[in-house]
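Reviewers asked in the last cycle whether our approach scales beyond single polypeptides. To address this, we selected a multi-component target totalling 564 residues and predicted its structure end to end. The input consisted of the following lines:
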Amino acid sequence: MSSALAAAGETAGERVALVNGVPQATVSVFDRGLQYGDGLFETLRCEQGRVRWFDRHLARLSAGCARLGLPVPDGPLLRREAESVLEGCPRALVKLVLTRGVARARGYRPTGDERATRILTRHPWPAATGQEFRLGLSAVPLARNPLLAGLKHLNRLEQVLAQRAAASAGVDEVLMCGGDGEVVSGSMSNLFLVQGGTLLTPPLLQCGVAGILRSLVLELAPQLGFAVRVTPLSAQQLAEAPALFVTNVRLGVQAVHWYEGRRLELDARGARLQELIDHAER
Amino acid sequence: MSSALAAAGETAGERVALVNGVPQATVSVFDRGLQYGDGLFETLRCEQGRVRWFDRHLARLSAGCARLGLPVPDGPLLRREAESVLEGCPRALVKLVLTRGVARARGYRPTGDERATRILTRHPWPAATGQEFRLGLSAVPLARNPLLAGLKHLNRLEQVLAQRAAASAGVDEVLMCGGDGEVVSGSMSNLFLVQGGTLLTPPLLQCGVAGILRSLVLELAPQLGFAVRVTPLSAQQLAEAPALFVTNVRLGVQAVHWYEGRRLELDARGARLQELIDHAER
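The resulting structure, written as structure tokens, was:
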């Protein structure tokens, strides 16, 4: 498959793609993923030829499929395909996009006999910048919809707008607020506020994505003596926070050096939490 | 271009597609339209080889581009391409999708040097069913985000979920409510409540799409003696409404025969409004 995959790569073999098991880098313009964002995605951390925390990704994807009325994904097939696009890369990100498939008719209403499209793309592991991590607060709100909350679905314009503004502001990531002004998450990460022996993170019942790293932190932090509380956080609490972590599969447990131009404390337990997570099999 | 377009058609020449001026029916899997719904669309009514109300579509599209930070679209080019895919069809719908283009890097943040992708697809004009139009009330809410309100952007999962439920309920269209329970619009149409000599339609400052037909009704209805008011509408007002219209480019001014199982009055001024709109050049 090596040469075919390379041929399908768009940027001199750096990015490769597999669509429904076939090495190709295109999809139909009639795919409902493009037409409506009618689908889901996962970003998989791959190391030594294996997908980390695959069962958690599959569980979230399956929950999303149930919510959207997509067929239950074939886990072993997805894992095989993800590992096949690695092609011996020691470390990479593999993005899995699963859509409802090519539209059978015009309009939002699915006919029910669409065949899901699965797209796997390999992306090089980003080089570490070695720079301090800067976090801001976005003016772009997260719209509240409990039917979509928690899912990693393809409707991501809010995050695009937030990251576009973050680029202008010279920060790496921005926190986003829900309709009542409560802080929900970063645009591409979940949020943990470190307050003494307690880790606080917002609930995700109205908006936000239930991150894989977030679930790992919630489970493993007690081993370091942390109490963990899922609780609403206000912008004021953030403005006074002594220390913050943001988490996602790529960043891991990322200590925040600067929040809205204010230098934060660095909590050594972040690195220990990262070690625990690095060793977590599931 | 005829045979090439036919070759690019997916369903025996019924649907044809043009991507950046080239007859083809595929896009890159790395297109940000697919990855994030990072783009906009327009559904164009085409008759006698011409796009109806093109200037209004272009104005809405341009406003959306300004909001998302996409380059100003080339109106004359879009019009020429839309008319070229018609290929002598007396009547058709042409869908225009405009995305930020192929991602230059992984992640939500645009690099700013993407080149927009424009996709035009032709769809046969749906055959009239001759059946009574049934409208329901959806349990799927419309999330509120003033930064996206009014735009015809590609993040349409809420509408997909609403139409999926509408199919099960056996209705043609469903009304959707915003966060405070106020009725905003149909999943694919705008809403007008007929109350004596007044047409009432909800504001679209928090969610919903600013429809082309809606703008035409707002401008032309006074010629029939209607007063027009843009005002919030509650589910209770809908439950007691004597007559309703829903509007979009395909349906025109569609009288609602049944709302939530209740038979409505039919207002003859709907047909006269439709005639006025049919003759509106701009």
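Chain A touches chain B through 64 residues (CB under 8 Å). We regard this as preliminary and will revisit it once experimental data from Aim 1 are available.
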